[in-house]
Design brief:
The protein is of the alpha/beta class. It is built from ten helices and nine strands. The protein has a six-stranded mixed beta sheet, with helices on both faces. The chain has a three-stranded antiparallel beta sheet with strand order 2-1-4. The longest helix is centred in the C-terminal third of the chain and has 18 residues. The protein is globular and about 50 Å long.
C-alpha cells in the first residue's frame, strides 16, 4: 500500500478538515470539526441558523481565521490551490445603481481568474452554460432578478473551470422553479465537468436528491455521510428539532435526482 506521501491524486481528498475550531470573542462557534470531501462529489453542509455551517465554508476558503486545526485542499495549502477554486457567496452586496453591465462584470472575472490568453468568448460560453442568453451581457447588473443574478454569479465563479466550486446557499433569493434549475445546474457542473461541489444549504428536501454527502453542523459535527443513511428522522430532530421530521418524510418524493 502507498504511504501518505505516495498517494495518487485520486486518493487525496478534495478537501480535508482536521480538528478545526473557530472562535469569536472567546466563544467557539465551530468546535473541533473534522471531515473529508471526496474529489468529484457533491457535498452539502447543513444545520440550523447560526449553527456554524457558513463559518466552516468560509474557514475552508481562508475567509475567517482558524483558532486551531488545519485545512488542505487537493492535498495543498489554500494559497497554492486558490486559482483552481470558485466561490459564490450567500450575499453579493453591491450598489445596484452602479453602471456596470453583466458583460463588464464577467470580463473582470475573466481577467482576474483566467490565464492571460483566455479568449473573451469564454464569457459567452459560461453565460450560456448557466442557462442565460447573450442578450443579458448588455444589461446592468443591478437590473437582474434574483435568479438571473445568481446564475451570473455562478457563471463568473466557473469562468476558470474550477476543480472545486463553493456555494453558500445557492438558491437563496430564488423562486421554487429557479431553485430546481440551480440544483440541476450544480448537477451538470459535477457530472459533465467533474467539478467537486461544496455548498451550504437549508433545503434538505431538495439537496438530499442531489448530493453524495451531507455534513451536519451545529457547532460540532453531528452527522456525516450519504443522505440516505445520515438524514434519519432521529438525526434530523437532533439537528433541527421537531421541525426536522417533515423533511425526513418527503425527501424521497420530490426534487431532482442525482442518479
Amino acid at each position: 500500500m502507498p504511504t501518505s506521501s505516495e498517494k495518487t491524486s485520486a486518493e487525496i481528498p478534495a478537501i480535508s478538515v482536521r480538528n478545526c475550531t473557530v472562535s469569536y470573542d472567546g466563544l467557539n462557534v465551530v468546535d473541533d470539526v473534522s471531515f473529508d470531501i471526496e474529489t468529484g462529489s457533491i457535498t452539502a453542509l447543513i444545520g440550523p441558523n447560526g449553527s456554524g455551517k457558513t463559518t466552516v465554508l468560509r474557514a475552508i476558503l481562508g475567509l475567517v481565521p482558524l483558532s486551531s486545526g488545519e485545512v488542505s485542499i487537493m492535498g495543498k495549502h489554500l494559497h497554492v490551490i486558490r486559482p483552481f477554486i470558485g466561490y459564490v457567496p450567500q450575499r453579493f452586496e453591491f450598489d445596484r445603481t452602479f453602471p456596470i453591465t453583466v458583460g463588464e462584470f464577467m470580463d473582470l472575472a475573466r481577467r482576474l481568474h483566467c490565464r492571460q490568453h483566455t479568449p473573451h468568448s469564454r464569457i459567452l460560453d459560461k453565460i450560456k452554460e448557466v442557462g442565460l442568453t447573450k442578450e443579458i451581457l448588455g444589461r446592468n447588473l443591478g437590473e437582474l432578478s434574483g435568479g438571473q443574478l445568481q446564475r451570473v454569479l455562478i457563471a463568473q465563479a466557473i469562468i476558470n473551470d474550477p476543480a472545486i466550486l463553493f456555494l453558500d446557499e445557492p438558491s437563496s433569493g430564488v423562486d421554487i422553479t429557479g431553485e430546481a434549475t440551480i440544483y440541476h445546474l450544480i448537477e451538470h457542473l459535477n457530472r459533465d465537468h467533474n467539478t467537486t461541489v461544496v455548498m451550504v444549504s437549508h433545503d434538505i428536501g431538495m439537496i438530499s436528491h442531489v448530493v453524495d454527502t451531507v455534513i451536519c453542523i451545529n457547532r460540532k459535527l453531528l452527522c456525516y455521510g450519504p443522505p440516505q443513511t445520515a438524514l434519519t428522522a432521529h438525526k434530523l430532530e437532533e439537528v433541527f428539532g421537531e421541525h426536522g421530521h417533515p423533511y425526513a418524510h418527503h425527501r424521497h418524493e420530490t426534487g431532482p435526482h442525482k442518479h
